Amino acid sequence: MSIYNSSELVSVIMPSYNSAETIEASINSVLKQSYSNWELIITDDLSIDNTVNIVREIAKVDHRIKLYTSLENGGAGKARNNCISKANGRFIAFLDADDLWLPKKLEKQITFMLEKNYYFTYTAYQKFSSKGIAGVISPVQEINYNKLLFSNEIGCLTVIYDTSEIGKKYMPLIRKRQDMGLWLEILKSVNKAYCLDEVLAMYRTDSGMTQNKLKVLSYQWEFYRKIVGLSFFRSSITFFVYACKGYMKSRK
């Protein structure tokens, strides 16, 4: 089949919060997609800068862009869930308001999914900052529930899942690790997620999201115990492997 004639709608999920400096570039990277059958659903999480006005101006000239605003600041997971609830597409894709897609991201990934009959996929991605291009993240070729517990190999900005097989799945309402929580939930429905090992997205590293490593590790422990529901013993083993893998990644 010709991908350009595909009738399959892709719903692009974008949370925003004080993203005035970056969101226009993120939206433009969707507008430039070679695959044109998409809707971009943005939920603003009560920004106090000019984010909403920027989105409204762009949406005036492209009906595929839909803006919703939260009544209270609930975090990125809650904003993404609102977008998912409004989505009409067979496919759900994720892009944050400070990251970018390369022009053929949707075309290549949707083709990959349809040809291989895959329902949950991700890709490689490039890190960048105001200082320039950084390293490439090339994830494992496939991953299941148990392997994902030890390391979140899946970049949120690269994920697409197929609601025709999986149904709509939502993120847990937590402030951090919402994406990992969702991937684990999806992997209860499908055996594996599969990687299209090509750089199709750009991950911004200097947008204020960098966190203290000790706080991240502390939250990861709570994630295993309270969100995933692992026993103390299994949490201890999983956490140890997670910390070791994180250390090795930081050394690259």
From TrEMBL:
It comes from Shewanella psychropiezotolerans. PANTHER family: GLYCOSYLTRANSFERASE, UDP-GLCNAC:BETAGAL BETA-1,3-N-ACETYLGLUCOSAMINYLTRANSFERASE-LIKE PROTEIN 1. Pfam families: Glycos_transf_2. The lineage of its organism: Bacteria, Pseudomonadati, Pseudomonadota, Gammaproteobacteria, Alteromonadales. Residues 11-129 form the Glycosyltransferase 2-like domain. It comes from the Bacteria. This is Glycosyltransferase. InterPro entries: Glyco_trans_2-like, Nucleotide-diphossugar_trans. SUPFAM superfamilies: Nucleotide-diphospho-sugar transferases.
